[in-house]
Specification:
This protein has 631 residues and is of the alpha/beta class. The longest helix has 22 residues, at 187-208. Keywords: ATP-binding, DNA-binding, Nucleotide-binding, Transcription, Transcription regulation.
Length: 631
């Protein structure tokens, strides 16, 4: 018997013993599979409901799991690259096993949907029997379920690897899963989901923490990475910790949580704030630590109630005709949870304007908005500009030094425009500051703790720069917690209303000017390679040349606007077919975006302002047989 056929023979023997003879299959299969089969006995294969829940209910569940989704998004994107290359899919579930998101190979997605491995379907053991998502949640460990190890015979062609995701108090938050054909899933896939789950837990604990956060590791170089131990202390008691911390101390959540911090860490622990040092534990063991203060529990509660009510009261009313408004609403929600936002768009598309609106509507609206144009700073000065410097740090330094832009953003929003232009040599230091929230000025001196929300912008594709070795992958994952793809001006369905509003704001209202329809239509039909920035310049010129009370017609427009060919207006095409199904309009929009982006899924998704999984599902439906498509 070959080694390849041995596992399948063992599984066949186990299934015969368990399902046909009702005997214990333990000698033939892994212990966790045997336990799961026993737990799955109540599942009736004839009564499996494969229908996804209604989209409105799924959206409610996604709303409830918003923090999980936002913290897991970078890992979903990262795992998707592996999944697509290996003909697999990546799925994220909540604590009940309900699949919230799915992304991956267009070739495998239809196969996954045929066995209901798709968003809106619960894959707990009580619903689907033994499977990687449900069994990982039940066993509370990362594991694989391959082929016939699945309880339901209909899932026998699947190979799945899943890892549970825990909160800082040991509660299940969800699971990450890689699924594909059995031969495609192996221990490498299991290692990937295990590491990704650890990253999500690290990000979630930091986003939820209030009080003191102790970062530590026996190896100082690992502080500031996802491999560090994290412990949250409120009111002198340990209230949360990640699994790395448990492993380093040899503890469980039950034996660590709610302990007195001074008894466990020693009387010196409060003195470790804002600096790296060694902490001697009561037993004499030393660990490298960094202590941060993120605000007291009470201040955290206030931020989630009173402060947010104040933000809602002070926020400008949302213009429902503004296509950017839904993007802004989503960005505000994730930024208010401490998740960094990356704004992607063409030059002149309004990235800084969007970011300022984001700051004005966020929990940090009362704090500063500190903008740094990374592209305009000389490479020799950008380090001093960002991190500040001490007196005498270098020739030409100010006499009393300078705090730096990062420290100036304390309590507000730090906006790094054109972040792709930061020199590679400085990216490591920036990553360390973003992870540790402690900035050390040039020339030495004590590190200073900083507290800010991060918004970055770029017109470049960061994944392509990572591939080219010009941008660090770990920094990309850190700054791109949530990505907003701003549409180019000629792609905006609301551009006529936008042009009319900007015309008035550019002085048209003050001079009582009227923008005639022929001029508006000509302006709306132009491609605007310089986007909103170019539009504003043209509008200011029109206003300057007009006399008070004039009616501005198309004849007053610059010559290059007359000569240019009009851009295709998809919104008008769909408006002329009011009875066209929404699905048809959506498919057409995705197809057009793919053609415009040379079938690059990531670029097409950014162009449409949707997640890549939406485009992958569209491609999967196209490849699926007609009888198997699901909309």
């Amino acid at each position: 018997m070959s080694e390849a056929s041995a596992p399948s023979t063992s599984i066949a023997q186990a299934r015969e013993l368990f399902f046909a003879q009702g005997r214990d299959p333990a000698p033939w299969i892994a212990p966790h599979i045997s336990r799961s089969w026993q737990r799955s006995r109540p599942v009736d294969p004839q009564c499996i409901d494969s229908t996804p829940m209604a989209p409105s209910l799924l959206n409610e569940r996604r709303e409830q799991a918003m923090r999980l989704l936002s913290c897991a998004q970078p890992e979903l994107d990262g795992l998707a690259e592996h999944a697509v290359g290996n003909g697999c899919i990546v799925a994220l579930s909540d604590a009940s096993g309900l699949i919230l998101e799915e992304i991956g190979s267009p070739d495998f997605l239809p196969k996954a949907q045929r066995v209901a491995l798709q968003p809106g379907v619960e894959w707990s053991e009580s619903h689907r029997g033994t499977n990687a998502i449900g069994t990982a949640l039940a066993e509370r460990v990362a594991l694989m379920v391959l082929g016939g190890e699945h309880y339901l015979a209909q899932n026998g062609r699947l190979g799945c690897a899943a890892a549970p995701i825990f909160s800082g108090r040991g509660e299940l938050a969800g699971a990450l899963d890689i699924s594909g054909e059995t031969a495609r899933v192996n221990h490498h896939a299991l290692g990937l989901v295990r590491m990704a789950a650890q990253q999500v837990e690290h990000r979630m604990l930091l986003a939820e923490a209030s009080g003191h956060v102790l970062r530590f590791h026996a190896r100082p170089a690992l502080i500031g990475t996802a491999r560090e131990g994290l412990m949250v202390i409120e009111g002198g008691r340990i209230v949360a910790a990640n699994r790395v911390a448990l492993d380093l101390f040899g503890r469980s959540w039950e034996s660590l949580l709610d302990l007195d911090a001074e008894e466990f860490l020693g009387a010196q622990w409060p003195r470790m704030e804002h600096r790296r040092s060694l902490l001697t534990l009561p037993g004499g063991r030393q660990i490298a630590t960094v202590m941060e203060r993120t605000g007291t529990a009470n201040s955290g509660a206030g931020r989630s109630t009173g402060a947010r009510q104040a933000m809602a009261a002070n926020a400008a009313p949302v213009d429902t005709g503004d296509v950017v408004a839904p993007l802004l609403a989503r960005a505000v929600r994730v930024l208010n949870e401490g998740v960094p936002v990356l704004v992607n768009g063409e030059t002149g598309s309004g990235k800084e304007v969007f970011s300022r609106r984001l700051h004005a509507t966020s929990r940090r609206s009362a704090g500063p908005f500190v903008a740094v144009d990374c592209a305009s700073l000389p490479e020799t000065l950008i380090e001093a500009e960002l991190f500040g410097y001490e007196e005498g740090a270098f020739t030409g330094a100010r006499r009393k030094g300078m705090p730096g832009r990062i420290r100036e953003a304390h309590g507000g929003v730090l906006f790094l425009d054109e972040i792709a232009e930061i020199p590679l040599a400085l990216q490591t230091r920036l990553l360390r500051v973003l992870e540790g929230r402690v900035v050390t000025p040039l020339g030495g001196g004590q590190g200073v703790a900083v507290d800010f929300d991060l918004v970055c912008a770029t017109h470049a594709g960061l994944p392509a720069l990572v591939e080219a070795g010009r941008f660090r992958a770990d920094l990309m994952y850190r700054v791109a917690g949530f990505t907003v793809a701003l549409p180019a001006l000629h792609e905006r369905a609301d551009r006529r209303a936008l042009i009319a509003r900007l015309f008035l704001e550019s002085g048209g209202a003050a001079k009582h000017l009227c923008l005639e329809n022929d001029a508006l239509e000509r302006l709306a039909a132009y491609r605007w390679p310089g986007n909103v920035r170019e539009l504003r310049s043209v509008l200011r010129a029109l206003v300057a040349l007009a006399d008070p009370g004039d009616a501005v017609t198309a004849d007053a427009l610059p010559a290059h606007l007359h000569d240019a060919a009009p851009v295709a207006d998809f919104s008008e095409a769909t408006a002329s077919q009011p009875n066209a199904p929404l699905q048809t309009i959506t498919r057409h929009a995705i197809d057009e975006a793919l053609r415009a982006c040379d079938h690059d899924v990531a670029r097409a998704a950014r162009r449409l302002g949707v997640h890549r999984s939406t485009v992958y599902r569209h491609l999967a439906r196209q490849r699926a047989p007609a009888g198997n498509t699901k909309d």
